[in-house]
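Researcher: Go.
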Amino acid sequence: MKKTTLILCLVLPMLFVGNLSAKVRLPQIISDCMVLQRDRELKIWGWANPGEKVTVRFDGQHFFTEGSSDGRWEVTLPKHAAGGPYLLEINEIILRDILVGDVWLCSGQSNQETPIERLLIKYPEINFSNNHNIRMYKTPTQNTPGEVKDDIPAGERWHSAVASDVMNWKALAYWYAVLAYEHTGIPQGVIVSSLGGSAIESWIPEERLLTFETQAKLKAAAEKAAAEMADAGGGKWQSETWDDSNWNTINNPTYLTDAGIQPGIVIWYRKTIDVPESMAGRHAKIYMGRLVDGDEVYVNGTLVGSTGYFGPPRKYDIPAGVLHKGRNVVAVRLTANAEDAGFVPDKPYKIEGDEATIDLTGEWKYKIGKKRTASGFPGFGRGPQFSGAGLYNGMIAPLTNYVFSGMIWYQGESNADHADIYDKQLEALIESWRDAFHDTNMPVMICQLPNYMKKYDHPVDEDWARMREAQLKAYMNTPYTYLATSYHTG
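Model: Structure:
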């Protein structure tokens, strides 16, 4: 049964591609192997031609509606006890292996992003995970300042926690789901909508951000930084058809200084690859090792991922439909400020599909898009993670029809230098999210920052200590919140 469940989770999205081309369309999160919240009324929604009849069938009940004038439709399912698996049918679309249990939204920055594979040495039992009743969905990155999206990007699916699928999990989500299932015996679903290096401002709706007196200054500073960070290649050099024949060449992976290039630049890289027919049109993953400092990675002109700081390994999803047979182009925009900027050696650089792997080491073309001015780049290396409201618009707003048991928030490192206002920002985030999800009492678990870096024998004015105090204040001032302390774990 467990093996069959995993096979369904893996192959069903491919089997029903034909159905998904029907006039009725579903949001990405409503898909095979999802977990729905128990004991709450649930919305199932999507898009259809105006006036088109829509029939939703779930656990023996039928629900009817039609596409509205703006092309949207929605039905409300009654409360349902925990259980499953079930079928969910929407006209010709059939979704299988649906569970009903508790669903949690995990958001924040890099500690929410930590892949489970990094814990294998300490917890080798992860290799033998065999629980198909806990599942995770990782929202692809979508940063859209000034534009509220109605759906998240394609390219992901629900992952079960069985051994052959568990390596797709994020560590915090995995351990929370494991412990919650052990405690309740109820199916657990975790939706991880986070981005490493992100600041809290990027997760707060713009209308709430503007209530802060400092926000106008922060917005102006961000716009100034963005203008100063603009480079000659922006909007052009990532294109699949851009002529790079007169660019210089470099063998990657290598540090810029080893190639005689001084940091303090925005540098673009391009590599032409040959994609076999077996990978054409299909979802794949691109591994860009470790890039220093901040990167944007494009495949055939499509942004597939970005990280605004040097820390985490770069592993991004290439959505279905981006790769095509024959000539394809990978482009990287790198903000290079550190002395060790560049492609870090001895890391994986490749595109990996189900049936083939493409090596990305070796010769790349490169061109410098901008050199640092004498006064430096304000906010140099800060990518879309710092765009006010952008991550809320692209990664939270599309989920607000989904029903959650609660939220787990783990963030603060990127705001530690402004901890004096963080408690009010976090309170605003929690209140605005509760409003958006129509749940004024939504439980929120705040993960307090751990101890980190050098240990002192005397008190110091340390940003992270101030951040922990701000997180404590937000917890004390906001009802239905819980504080998870982690000072002993650093």
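Model: Residues 215-229 form the longest helix (15 residues).
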